[in-house]
Design goal:
heterodimer, A: alpha+beta, Dna Ligase, domain 1, D-amino Acid Aminotransferase, Chain A, domain 1, 36% strand, globular, B: alpha/beta, 2-enoyl-CoA Hydratase, Chain A, domain 1, 3 domains, eight-stranded mixed sheet, 19 helices, 17% strand
C-alpha cells in the first residue's frame, strides 16, 4: 500500500472514493472542457511536470477551463519544456482527515474514528486533533466503513491510517494509506482509551482483537502539537544546538484537562542537523474541544526551551486564533493566516497588564533582597510603591504593594487593582501563578535594564523604574540602529573547513557563515547582522590569517 | 533670617542649574543626561549629598575672572548604593565643557581622599573636554593630584570609571588607573590624541568612533570592561556591580539572601562536554548553571573572548569566575586572554573575592603575531596573578589541561586550594598526536604503529587519573555535582589565612 498509484487503484476497487480525475493526456482546450464537465467543477488543470504553483489553474466553469488549459500549457512549455496537461477534481476548502484502523490476523478490523490534521506547513503536520470539528456522525461512519473495506481488501493486520482529503461539502476522497503507527496516534488513544501500541503488539503476536466496533466511542477531545526545533521568527529555519534548558509541563491533570508528553529528548541533549527536527509531542485532553485547547495553551505556556529556538510561540498563536477556535480550518490555514510568516503574537491589553505586574513583582522581590544586603551603612527605607512601567514606547504608572506571595498592582491609567499570586523567586525560571484569579505562566529574563517577558508568542521588554527615571528615559532620543560591520573576518589563523554561504544569499544575524578550524577545533563564524552576501573570498581548505576578510556583505 | 535662607536657596539653585537649561537640553539631544541626573540614577533615591557646590575657579587670565560657574564643571559628593556608601564625581559638560581646572581637580581629590579614608568605592562619571587651557600648568597639576590619589587608592578601595561623553588627553589616565572602565555606546569616546592630531601627525583619517568609541575599546583594545546602550542602562549596571564588591580591602564581599539551593544538582551538565574532544561547547553555560540563580556579571565580555571573567555568587556571597571558553579559539591562552584574566584575578585578590576557575585549555596560542606581541610576558602575568593570589582558589578541570597552560590555570602547584576534575578531563603535557610524534619519532614513517602509540598515549594520559594519583587533583567529581562541591569547598576555605612574604611590592611582568 506504500505506492500511491497502486494504493489508489486498490482503493477504487475496494469501493473507496478517490479524487476524480483524468489521468491521460489531453490534446486540446475543447477536450479539456469536456473532461472538466465530466469530473464536475471546480477542477484543477495542471502540468505533468508542474511544481511550485507553475502551470496550475483552477477552473470553476467552461470558460475558465478553456483559458486555464491554454494558460497552463503555455506556462508549462515555457517553464519546463514539457506541456503535457492533466485535469482532476479541485478540492475546495480541503481538510486533511484520516481514519485510524486496527486489524488482526483473523480478518477482524475496526476503525477508531478520525483525526483531523489540517493545520500543516509545507505538508508537515503541525496541529492534530480528534475528533474532527467538521465531521458529522454519518460522514464519520461512511469514512470508517470505507477504510475498513480498504484494510480488509489488503488483509491489513495491524494499526494503520487511511488518509482522506475532505472538501467544504464533506465529500471525502482517498489520499493514501499509512501502514504504520503515526506521530499523531496519541489523540486517538486519548479519545478512545485504546492503547494502540499494545494492540499492535497483541495482533502482531497473532492474538484476536478483543475490541469490537461498538466498543469504540469518542470520549471528549484531544489535541496534539508537534514541538519542532525550528525558528518561527526566521521563516521556520531549523534551529540546532544544545538544549540548555528543556522543561516540560508535568504530565497528568492541568486545569480542566490532562497533559501527555511524548519525547525523546532531555535537558542537556544536542539537537543536531542529522535528525528530524521534532523534539516532542504535546498532547492534551479535555471534555470538549475548547477544554482541550485551553489546557493545551496552558501546557505550552509551561514549556521551557533554551539553547535552540522552538516553534511553541507559533503553536500558541495558532491555538489562540479565533478562526482556529471556531474550527473553520483547512490545509491552507497557515498560508492564509500567516501570509508574511510569523513575527510573534500581538500583545493584548490583558497580556500587557499581566506582563507589567509580573515584571513589577520580579523587580520588587529583587530590590527587597538587595535592600537587605550585608554591610549597609544607612538603614533601609521602606519599599517604594509608586513605579512606572515602560513597555512598547509607553509609560504606564503603577502602584505596587508587595508581599511574600505576590503583589497587588494598581494600574492608575485604568484605575484598577489586580492581584498577582506567585511563588516565583529570582533565578526561578518559569513564573507560574494567578493574575486576576486566572492561571498564568510566563518566562522573564533580566536584561541590562528591565526584563524580556515571553508568553505564548507574545514578547515584550518591560522596564520598571521610578517616575523620575521614566522622565529621563523620555528625554533621551531614540537611538538609530548602529551600522554594523559588513565584513566577516577570521578571528584567528586557521584552515577553512567550509563556507556555508554563496554570493547573493540572504543571511540572517546569527546564521552560520563559515567554519574555521584552528587548534584542531572547529569555530563556527556567524553573521552579526542581516545582510546579502556580496563577496566570498575563501573556500574550504584555504589557510587564512587572523583578521583576513572571508566574506563581505553588500 | 528669611533673607539669609533665601540667599542660600538662590546660590544652591544657581549651582544646580549647571550650564543652564539650554546647554542641558543640548546634552539631552545628544542622547546624554546631565551630571546631576546621572548621579541621581546611580545612587539610592535622595541619598546624594553634594560637596563643594560653591567652589569656583581662581583663574584671572583670558577674561576668565568674568566667567565663573559655581561648582566649576564637576559635581562631587557621596551617597549610597543599596545603603552602602560610595563617593562620586560627575563631570558637567555644560560648564566649561567639563574641562579641568585646579579647583575642579581639588573637588575630585577631596572625594578620593575621603573614600580612601573611610573605605568606600569611588565612581567617576566622565564627560569632559580635557584640560582647562586657560589655567595652564595649574590644570596639569590638578590632573597629577588626581592620578596620585588613584594610585594610592588602588587595591584599597574599588575605583570605577564610566565614560559617558568625550574623554581625551589627560582625562583618560585617571580612568586608566581605576579598576574598571565602562562606556556608553555611540555617545562616548576615549583616546589620548584625537582625530585632528592623528591626521596632522600620521596623515591617517579616522572618526571619533573608530578611534576611541565604545566598540573599539570593548572589543579591540580591551581598555574598557563593558559597553552599555545608554546612560540609564550603564548606571543601572554599575549599581548591580557595586552590589558584588566589598567597600574596601578591609572587608569581605557583601552577602545577599540567595534563593538558590546550594545543593542543586544539574543533570544536564553531564552532557556539557561533547564526546568529540575537538567540538566546542559554551563554558558560560557551566558558570550560569553553577552560580546562584544563574546571575553572572561579566567583565570584558567582548574582548579576549577565549577566556571568561566576571562576578557571580555562591550561597549569596561574591566569587570571581575565570574560565577558558572553548567556543572561542578553542579556549587557547593568547595575549588578550592572559591580560584580561590576570587583571581580573588581581582585582579579586585585592578585595578578598574567592576565585573559581574552570579549565579547558589546549595551550598557549602559537604564531609570530603572538610571539612578536610578547606572549611570553603577557602569559606570565596570568601565571603570576594566580600564583600570588591568597584568596580561596577552587579549580575544576572540565576537559583539556595541556602543558604550561595547565600550570597557569590555578593549578594545585600555584597554591590552588581545592582542585577538582571532571571524568572527561585530560591532564597532560600535550594532545596525544603531538606527543606521539615526538616520543616515537623513530616510528614516524609507520602510520599503523603511530595510531597504536596514539591510542596507548590516550589510554594512559587522556584522563584525570594520572594527575589524581599524584594528588594534583583532590577529587574527580561528577559534573552534575559541581555547584554542590564548589559550595562545600568555599565553606571549607572561609577561614583561609595565607600571606605572601613581606616586600615593598612584587614585580609582576608588566
Amino acid at each position: 500500500m506504500g505506492d500511491k498509484i497502486t494504493s489508489k487503484k486498490f482503493a477504487a476497487e475496494a469501493g473507496v472514493s478517490t479524487v476524480p480525475g483524468h489521468m491521460d493526456l489531453i490534446k486540446d482546450a475543447k477536450e479539456a472542457v469536456k473532461i472538466s464537465k465530466e469530473i464536475g467543477y471546480p477542477v484543477m488543470i495542471k502540468a505533468s511536470a508542474g511544481g511550485g504553483g507553475k502551470g496550475m489553474r483552477i477552473a470553476w466553469n467552461d470558460k475558465e477551463a478553456e483559458e486555464g488549459f491554454n494558460g497552463a500549457k503555455a506556462e508549462a512549455k515555457a517553464s519546463f519544456g514539457d506541456d503535457r496537461i492533466f485535469i482532476e477534481k479541485f478540492v475546495d476548502q480541503p481538510r486533511h482527515i484520516e481514519i485510524q484502523v486496527l486489524g488482526d490476523k483473523h480478518g477482524n478490523c475496526i476503525y477508531l474514528n478520525e483525526r483531523e490534521c489540517s493545520i500543516q506547513r509545507r505538508n508537515q503536520k503541525v496541529v492534530e486533533e480528534a475528533p474532527s470539528p467538521f465531521l458529522d456522525e454519518k460522514t464519520r461512519q461512511a469514512m470508517g466503513e470505507q477504510s475498513i473495506a480498504l484494510a480488509k481488501a489488503v488483509d491489513y493486520d495491524s494499526a494503520g491510517t487511511v488518509e482522506f482529503i475532505v472538501d467544504g461539502d464533506r465529500n471525502f476522497y482517498f489520499l493514501e494509506m499509512n501502514t504504520r503507527l503515526q506521530v499523531e496516534h496519541p489523540v486517538t488513544e486519548m479519545t478512545t482509551g485504546v492503547d494502540l501500541v499494545e494492540q499492535m503488539l497483541l495482533v502482531a503476536y497473532g492474538e484476536k482483537l478483543k475490541l469490537k466496533q461498538k466498543d469504540i466511542g469518542i470520549n471528549g477531545w484531544a489535541v496534539e502539537t508537534r514541538i519542532y526545533a525550528e525558528d518561527p521568527y526566521r521563516n521556520f529555519l531549523p534551529s540546532i544546538g544544545r538544549l540548555r534548558r528543556m522543561r516540560f509541563p508535568a504530565e497528568g491533570k492541568l486545569d480542566k484537562g490532562e497533559v501527555r508528553i511524548d519525547t525523546g529528548v532531555r535537558e542537556g541533549d544536542e539537537i543536531s542537523m542529522f535528525y528530524d527536527p521534532m523534539i516532542a509531542k504535546l498532547i492534551t485532553h479535555g471534555k470538549d474541544r475548547d477544554a482541550a485547547i485551553d489546557t493545551h495553551v496552558k501546557a505550552l505556556e509551561r514549556l521551557e526551551v533554551e539553547g535552540i529556538q522552538d516553534n511553541s510561540p507559533f503553536l500558541a498563536a495558532v491555538l489562540n486564533q479565533k478562526r482556529f477556535r471556531s474550527g473553520k480550518i483547512t490545509t491552507n490555514y497557515i498560508k492564509e493566516e500567516f501570509p508574511d510568516g510569523f513575527s510573534g503574537a500581538d500583545m493584548s491589553e490583558k497580556d500587557e497588564r499581566l506582563m507589567i505586574a509580573a515584571s513589577a513583582y520580579a523587580h520588587g522581590v529583587n530590590a527587597a533582597r538587595f535592600n537587605d544586603i550585608s554591610g549597609r551603612d544607612e538603614p533601609a527605607h521602606p519599599a517604594r510603591t509608586e513605579w512606572v512601567a515602560l513597555v512598547a514606547g509607553k509609560a504606564v504608572p503603577i502602584r505596587v504593594e508587595l508581599d511574600e506571595k505576590g503583589a497587588e498592582v494598581h494600574f492608575e491609567d485604568a484605575d484598577k487593582t489586580i492581584q498577582l499570586k506567585t511563588n516565583w523567586r529570582p533565578g526561578g525560571g518559569l513564573m507560574e501563578g494567578k493574575f486576576d484569579k486566572e492561571d498564568f505562566a510566563l518566562t522573564l529574563k533580566p536584561t541590562d535594564e528591565g526584563f524580556i517577558v515571553e508568553r505564548l508568542g507574545v514578547t515584550a521588554r518591560i522596564i520598571i523604574c521610578t517616575p523620575a527615571t521614566a522622565e529621563l528615559h523620555a528625554r533621551l532620543p531614540e537611538k538609530e540602529k548602529p551600522d554594523t560591520s559588513k565584513l566577516i573576518m577570521s578571528p584567528m589563523p586557521g584552515l577553512m573547513v567550509s563556507v556555508d554561504v554563496e554570493v547573493g544569499q540572504e543571511v540572517k544575524s546569527g546564521e552560520a557563515v563559515c567554519v574555521v578550524e584552528a587548534m584542531k577545533m572547529q569555530n563556527i563564524i556567524r553573521a552579526e547582522a542581516d545582510g546579502v552576501v556580496a563577496k566570498v573570498n575563501v573556500g574550504a581548505g584555504d589557510a587564512v590569517a587572523a583578521d583576513e576578510v572571508l566574506v563581505e556583505f553588500a | 533670617m528669611k533673607e539669609i535662607v533665601a540667599q542660600l536657596e538662590a546660590k544652591r539653585a544657581e549651582a544646580r542649574a549647571g550650564g543652564g537649561p539650554d546647554r542641558i537640553a543640548r546634552q539631552h539631544a545628544k542622547g546624554k543626561l546631565s551630571a546631576r541626573e546621572r548621579i541621581n540614577l546611580l545612587l539610592d533615591e535622595g541619598s546624594f549629598e553634594e560637596w563643594d557646590m560653591f567652589v569656583e575657579h581662581r583663574c584671572n587670565d583670558f577674561g576668565m575672572d568674568e566667567n565663573k560657574f559655581p561648582g566649576d564643571g564637576v559635581v562631587t559628593g557621596w551617597g549610597t548604593v543599596n545603603g552602602r556608601i560610595v563617593y562620586v564625581f560627575s563631570k558637567d559638560f555644560t560648564v566649561f565643557g567639563g574641562s579641568l581646572s585646579l579647583a575642579h581637580a581639588a573637588k575630585i581629590v577631596k572625594v578620593q581622599r575621603a573614600a580612601a579614608k573611610i573605605g568606600a568605592p569611588v565612581i567617576g562619571l566622565f564627560d569632559a573636554g580635557g584640560a582647562r587651557i586657560q589655567e595652564g600648568v595649574d590644570s596639569l597639576a590638578g590632573y597629577a593630584d588626581i592620578f596620585m590619589e588613584n594610585v594610592l587608592s588602588s587595591g584599597v578601595i574599588p575605583q570605577i570609571s564610566v565614560i559617558m561623553g568625550p574623554c581625551a588627553g589627560g582625562d583618560v589616565y585617571s580612568p586608566a588607573m581605576t579598576d574598571f572602565i565602562f562606556m556608553v555606546k555611540d555617545t562616548s569616546y576615549m583616546f589620548v590624541t584625537g582625530p585632528d592630531v592623528v591626521k596632522t601627525v600620521t596623515n591617517e583619517n579616522v572618526t571619533h568612533e573608530d578611534l576611541g568609541g565604545a566598540r573599539v575599546h570593548s572589543q579591540k583594545s580591551g581598555v574598557v570592561d563593558g559597553a552599555f546602550e545608554n546612560d540609564i542602562e550603564a548606571l543601572q549596571q554599575i549599581r548591580r556591580m557595586i552590589d558584588f564588591l566589598p567597600s574596601s580591602n578591609r572587608e569581605k564581599p557583601p552577602v545577599i539572601k540567595s534563593f538558590d539551593d546550594p545543593d542543586r544538582r544539574d543533570m544536564s551538565l553531564n552532557t556539557l562536554v561533547p564526546s568529540n574532544p575537538n567540538t566546542p561547547y559554551d563554558m558560560k553555560e557551566l558558570i550560569e548553571k553553577v552560580a546562584d540563580e544563574g546571575d553572572f556579571f561579566e567583565i570584558g565580555k567582548d574582548f579576549g573572548k577565549n577566556i571568561i571573567t566576571g562576578f557571580g555568587r555562591m550561597e549569596g556571597s561574591t566569587v570571581g569566575f575565570v574560565a577558558n571558553q572553548p567556543m572561542s579559539l578553542a579556549g587557547v591562552l593568547d595575549i588578550d586572554a592572559s591580560r584580561k584574566a590576570a587583571r581580573f584575578v588581581r582585582f579579586c585578590d585585592c578585595f578578598n573575592i574567592p576565585i573559581v576557575t574552570f579549565v579547558d585549555v589546549p595551550g598557549f596560542m602559537p604564531g609570530t603575531k603572538q610571539e612578536y606581541g610578547g606572549l611570553i610576558k603577557h602569559g606570565a602575568k596570568l601565571l603570576f596573578a594566580f600564583a600570588e593570589a591568597t584568596v580561596p582558589k577552587v579549580t575544576v578541570i572540565t576537559r583539556k589541561a595541556y602543558g604550561g597552560a595547565y600550570d597557569v590555570m590555578s593549578s594545585k602547584h600555584l597554591r590552588g586550594d581545592v582542585n577538582f576534575a571532571w571524568p572527561t578531563a585530560e591532564i597532560a603535557v600535550m594532545g596525544a598526536k603531538g606527543a606521539v610524534e615526538i616520543i616515537f619519532r623513530a616510528e614516524a614513517g609507520d602510520p599503523d604503529k603511530l595510531a597504536e602509540r596514539t591510542k596507548e598515549y590516550e589510554d594512559r594520559f587522556a584522563n584525570p587519573y594520572v594527575a589524581a594519583s599524584r594528588g594534583y587533583i583532590d577529587d574527580v567529581i561528577m559534573p552534575q555535582n559541581t555547584r554542590h562541591r564548589i559550595v562545600r569547598a568555599l565553606r571549607q576555605l572561609r577561614g583561609k589565612d595565607v600571606t605572601n612574604p613581606p616586600k615593598k611590592h612584587d614585580n609582576i611582568p608588566l
